[in-house]
Structure formats: structure tokens, C-alpha cells
Amino acid sequence: MNLIEKIENITDKCISCGFCESVCPTLGANEYNSVFGARGRVILADFALKHPGNNMELGDSFYSCLDCYACVNVCPAGVNAGVVSELMKEYIVSGASGNKNPIAELIKDSIIKYENPLGLKKEAAEWAYGIEFNKSDTVIITGHMYQMMPYTRAINKVRKYIDEAVVRGIASAIKNHIPLIKLSRHFYDAGLREKMNRDLKNIVSMLKSSGVEFDYLGSDEPYPGMFLYDLGYMEEFKAYALKVYNLLKERGIKKIITVDPHTHDLLMNVYPEYIPEFGIEVVYYTDLLNLKFKKFNGNITIQEPCHMVLHNNNFRAVDILNSIADVRMADRNGKLNMCCGGPDELLFPESAKKISVQRYAELKEKSDNVITICPLCYNNLAYDNKVEDFSEFVIDMISK
Amino acid sequence: MQKSTSAAVTELISGLGSKKILTTAEELVPFMKDASYISGKMPVAVCLPENAGEIAKILSICNKHRLDVTIRSAGTSLTGSSISGFPGVIISTMNLNRILEINTSSRYAVCEPGVRLDKLNQELKKYNFFYPPDPASSRASTVGGSLSTNAGGLRAVRYGATKEWVLGMDVVLPDGHIIRTGEYTLKRSAGYDLTALMIGSEGTLGVVTKAILKIEPLPESTAKIIGFYKDIESVGKTMDKIKSAGITPLIAEFMDLGTINSIRKGMGLEIPEYTKFLLMVDVDSPLEALNRKIESARNIFKEFTGDVNVITDIKRMDEIYAARKGAYSALLDLRENNNQLIVIGDVIVPSSELAGAMTEIEKCVRDDGVKATLFGHIGDGNIHANIFMDNTEEGRKNMEKLQMDIAKVAITHNGCVSAEHGIGTEKNRLLYEEYLERDSLYTLEIMKSIKKVFDPNNILNRGKIFYEPD
Q1: Which of A5, A13, A14, A32 should we substitute to test contact with B (largest number of B Cβ atoms within 10 Å)?
Q2: Is 80 exceeded by the pLDDT of residue B78?
Q3: Residue pair A106/A113 in contact by the 8 Å Cβ criterion
Q4: Contact B35/A at CB under 8 A
Q5: ipTM for the whole predicted complex goes beyond 0.85
Q6: What is the domain count for chain A?
Q7: B99-217, what's its fold?
């Protein structure tokens, strides 16, 4: 099946009932401009493919999709508008229609050249200075996710004051002088950096206390290429993923411990799809915890990660929290979970902000104590200090 | 684009700002579809107003320039009501989406049109109340859309359709006037009932910007009784006897074998092999009297079938309710290919006529050689024929013939061609047929005259409801 057939195979099933719009976070965040909603994306994709040569600007519609997959979980016809968006981004990147997003182009080039979206591969390993790891064929892969959050937060603080067209212009200029991207190392939220580094250390500490032996690749750990995949650069992703795989193979890695849901989903489900020989076991760190916990004196609510609950990946984190505290889930939970808006933070910060404010309010309605299980969720929902990452909440609950 | 159209769009942009007026092709394309099988024309602009004042401004401009206007909220219409047959303007009411007030002592809720029905009920549940109309699309469909089609749903046997639950509304007329129809009171004897007139008018008279809705306490305790049957006559007799015994069910649904098969897994019930039809009845009562109510109903079921299930577990009841509500959707899996469409019929007959009408409708399906499954709201006589239509000229003709044949059965049995989905452009030929058969085409002329009073330039939802024969 070629790319167009793959897309039509999904869009043809759509009956335009609109159920997906009732759960699509980006629709409400864009004042119900349907092109920013799940159904609108499917209808637009179908129309664009049936009318080739149109002059429509398709990018914003598909790039703004959060890939949360809330849509397919309510669709009576089994249509995944998230996958349609992924494939349409590939269609746009192939040059078939629409304009490429300059920010996406910049990130792509940076990943390929520096193995990190902001050219910060070395900085992404700094959290682990001083920690001793075991020599092992099991390795922790951070995916650079916790480490990138302080930088994206600081960059977005500046972006708020700059017109979007200017931002895209700056991105194009940096793309033409790619080493300039490394200047981003000067833009970070110091408090958040300290906290994110602490979270990673906590995760390592809990794994060690659970008797797990594992290694860390340090500044050799490559970014796994998530943005290449998410932004539709499939040819580049295939080549890049193969490079990452070869590195892991050279190091004799047999098992990967992931610490964020995005990297987990990518390595668990996407890598084997593109690299058939990828036989490395992937396990989420919460599933390896073997600790005794105290009871939390109060209630909590949980922001479940879309890449686990809506992308059908099992993990034990919610069970662990249920064993510790009185959990009060938001009305939208499980298969109706609402995304935090995080995946839009780089390309559509305004939309990401609106979604996170709405979700934060929904969570706070249930409990003052919000637990996130993904660095992206934390970064987007931490409007007060009662929002905590799973690692920082749970480490305090370990029975001594 | 014509000069006057272009001038109107320019005026809209200067009046509301470019963010609220969409004009690029990629932004307009999604508004060419709703949940019907029909495709609309690409609009020249889509307006995203936030309040009644902005809607008044939009309508005044369009009225001045004689520009066609289609009103749309969630776009879940099954009859093409929310798409346009003309390249005009679409007004989306989705940004008017606040629940303004909930008053449990006077028992009303005040809502804007873009509030989704499930969202409203989620809020009301916090007070132990609910808003009864529950179309199968309630996850997505809105207060505005359900008012404009007089939507019904599973609970209509007890609570009736939307028109029973609206006390009043604010409406913007094509010339920009904002009027109030009705009030917050349960009773009102004050001239013509314009609230009733607006309900079911499918956006042809004005734009609803606020609705005062009646609300009801949630039933105290409920039970679901399900029986399996070899023939539709026994289903009809069971239902007649239940109602004659003074039991008014909360829900009374029937489905044929095709429908049962499509939701078999979702329901999770043991289905006897002989089954051709299923009857599902929900009863309610104060907790202490529920068992007595269940026994009365079960005894009636037992007179007509040997296999009766009683379910009182709330989780199981919710699962079966969700499966039934998703029946139309589940049928999608039975399509022979992705291009096959399911067109849903919506006739209604007096409930006592249902068994007879069903037998004739089954014959129509056989005679026309079109694949169709049947389910519906037996308590109120509403039959949905789900017609599998090949997306070809011939497929469309076959579907239209079957729709007309079924409509004629309903008309013969003193029924109507549309119970709860509205007319749109899909059923205007059937509506014409109904009044023709009743020798009452003048009724349609009166409706047209009323429309002229509200919308003298015929800008609102042109082509909807009224069929113009050659």
C-alpha cells in the first residue's frame, strides 16, 4: 500500500458522525475551527487527496494534532484521525501538498546533525554526573524528554512576545546556519532543570532500590528520533532509527528501561515496525519497581499519559498510585483521557496552553494533588507546586 | 465569487475580525460534511461568533446582501440539515457553549446552543438531575441541534421528544432582531407558542442563542428486562400489554437479528438460537417497590416468550444501554466495503400499529432487494431502517425507493416519515408525500408563509424541509 492508499484506507471508513470532535482537545482550543479538530482533519485529508494540485495550506491542521488518539477511542467506525494526521504530515513533507513548517524543518535538521532537537545532546547527560551505573546489557534510555523541558519552557516564555510569523522566520534563518541552534543551551528554566534532573535521579534510585541492575549511555545516548516520526519525516526517521538501533546493538543492549511514555511507545511499537530485526525488550520503569509504600494521608488525582492509556500500552503506575493513595480520577479518564496539550508546545504554544489550562482545571476539581507520569504532562500542568511527577511523589512514600 | 458575496464577506471580516470569519479553502472544507451521506457545497465563509450580538451582526449583513446562511452546531445531522446546498455562509454556534444556570427547585437549566447533551447531563448528574432527550449521538450532539430537529432518543417513550422539555429561548432573526420566546415558568398562556414553532424548524426561522430547558430528577432505581422472540407480533403484543397494565417504561426498544448480531458482543447476553427479535424494557420505581414492578413486567413478558432476562446491576445495565445506543455505529462493521454507506430511516407509527407496520416494512425490504436491518423505539412506534447503500447512482436510487416504500407504510398506519431526525434535504420529498397522501399540501404552504414572516428573503437554510416538485 502506498502512502495515499494508506490514508484513503482510513478516511474512506469515516462517516463524519462527529463523535471524535467531542473528545479532540485541539478543536475547543482553536475556537471550534473544524480544521483543528479530528473530524475536520479526516475530511480535509480526504478532500486534499481527491483534489490533487489544490493550493490548500494543509500544515497547521495536521501538525497541530496531538497524536493523543482520543478520537479512535470513541469512533464507531474505528477511524484513527491521529494516524491520518501522522500520514498527512508525511504527505506534506514529501512535497505533495502544503508548505513545510519551518520550525519542524529546523528541529529535523538539528536531530539529524546533533542527535537532539535543540542540539543539546551533551547537556542531556548532565543529570547523571556522579551516578554510578552497573555494567549491564540492560540500559536506561531517557529519550532526552525530562532534560528538554526546561529549555522548551524558557523558549516559549520568549516566544509569547514574538509574532508567530517572526518566529517561523527566525527558525528558517537558524536552519540555514544550523550550529546556531546550540545557542538554545543558554535558554532554560533553572528551577525546572534542577527539578527534572532530580526526577531522573529519583527514578534511578528507585530502580536500584528495587534490585534492578542497568547501565546508562551518558552523552552517547542518542535522542530516539521521536520528533522525526511525529513531524512526518519518515525517510529521515527510518535512517535515524536504524542508526540508533545499530548503536544499541554494538553496545550489546538486550533490554531498555524507558522513563517517559513517548519514548516508551516509540521504542516499543514504532521501532519494531520499521526495523524488523529490532529484538530489544522494552520495559517501562514503573513496572520494575519492587518497593513497599506507606499510605498517603489524603487524596490525589492522576493525569494518565495518552501514549500509555490511549495508545494501548500497559503499565503499572496507576495501580501503584491506587495502592498508596485515595485516587480520584478526572471525569475524562482511561479510554476517555484528555491530553495535557504538551505535544503542541513547540509548534502551537497558544493551543497547548489553552488545553493545559482546561485540563488542569478538570484535574483540580477532583483533588488538589495532581500526579503526572510523563515529563511533558508535568511541564504543561505544573501551574502550582501541588502538581508532582510520579517519581517525586512515590519516592517520598517508600517505607524505610 | 460574485461582487455582492465578496462585499458581504469583507463586511463580515471588518465586523467580527478575521479570526472569527474563516475564508480559506482548507478551513471551509470540513464544513461541507455532516453525519448524513450528503455532501454540501463549499461555503464562501464560516463564522465563529461568540454571542447573540455577533450572530445578529452576521445575519444583518447576510440579509442585506441576500447571502444564503446555514446554521450549524456539532454537525451531527443525519439528514443534511447542517450543510449547505448553496455556496453561502455557515454560522457555527459551537463557541456559545456555556451552561448559564441550573435551578433544581424550579427545575430548569439555561444553556447556550453549543452545549453537548452528554456534557449537560454530566453537570446535572452532580445535582441528581437529568435532561431526558437522549439521541444516540448525545456524546457529540448539542442543545441547539437537538432543538432544531426536535430530537428524541431512547427515553422518548416516557419523556417524549425535545419539544416537551423546552420552556423558552432567545432567537436571532435574519434581520438582526433578538427575540425571546417563552419564559422560565412551567405554565404560560400567552398567545402563540413561538417556542414550539422554533423546535424542529431546522434553522430555517432563526438562530437559537439561549434555551431554557426543563430538567428532571434521576430515577431512584431501575431494572432492565430483556425478552427474545421468534416473531415481531409477539414483541408488539408484549409491549401493548405492558402499557395497558399501567407500566410506562423508561426505555422500550426492539431490534431485529441483524442489529442483535452487530451488538451481540457489546451486550454480553446469551441469545437463544431461535431469536429473530429482541425486546428491551427499562422500568423504574422507588427502591422498595422495584421488585414488584419487575415481577409485573416479567409476568407479561412470560406470556409471549420463554426466555426473559432481568438485569439490575447498574454497570451491566449501562453496558447494554451503551451497546444499544451504539447500534447504528456497530452496523458499520457489517458494510461490505468502505464505500458502502448506511442511511438511516426514521419513520414512526402509533405504537399499537408497530407490529403490523414492521411486517409490511420487512416485506418492502425483501421486495426491494436492499440490505437493511431494523431497530427502534417500540414504546413510541419509531422504526429505524438502516439501509446499506452502495455509493453509486443505482445504489442511491434503490435506497430512495426503499425509503419511499417504508414512508408509505408509515403514512398508511397513521404515522409520519420522520420521528426524530428532522427533514433536512434528505427527507423533504418524503414529507411532501406525507402531506400529499393526507390531501393536506396546504399545510406545507402555511409553513412556507410562516417562514416568510421570519425570513422574508429566504436566506436561512434554503432547500431544507420544503420539496419543490418539477
Answers
A1: A32
A2: yes
A3: no
A4: yes
A5: yes
A6: 3
A7: 3.30.465
